[in-house]
Amino acid sequence: MTKGRPWLEKFPLPHRIVVFADDSSLCREIVVEIEAGKCARCELAVYNISDHTALAEKYGIRVAPTVVIDEEIKIEGDQMFPLYAATKPMLTSRKCIR
Fold it and tell me: What pLDDT band is residue 7 in, cutting at 50, 70 and 90?
């Protein structure tokens, strides 16, 4: 238990989520998914990696999309794409496959 502040265990502090993106459809979709999934108290900031190069250098960003949560890089590049793609059906000429 948190000494003198037991309510902190019930209501964790919000997270700061920073997404470095570009104009790709993957980045736009990832931002939409994060906005939909974050709690109301969490703060989300989205930066275009080309427009905010100094900030990207501060975090050590090399590729887009990159997701930083509480000052720590959690997801970098398209490593999240296979997980994302697995949840979205892909249409082929004859059938829908997952």
Answer: low
Q: Which residues pair with 19 in a beta bridge?
A: 46, 67
Q: What Å distances lie between residue 32 and 2, 21, 36, 58, 62, CA to CA?
A: 34, 12, 6, 25, 22
Task: Report the share of the chain in percent with pLDDT over 70.
Answer: 67
Both tokens assigned to 90? 């892909």
Starting at the edge strand that comes first in sequence, how are the strands of the sheet with 72-76 ordered?
43-48, 16-21, 66-69, 72-76
pLDDT tens digits, 53-88: 999 999 899 899 999 999 999 989 876 555 544 444
- CATH hierarchy code of domain 16-81: 3.40.30.10
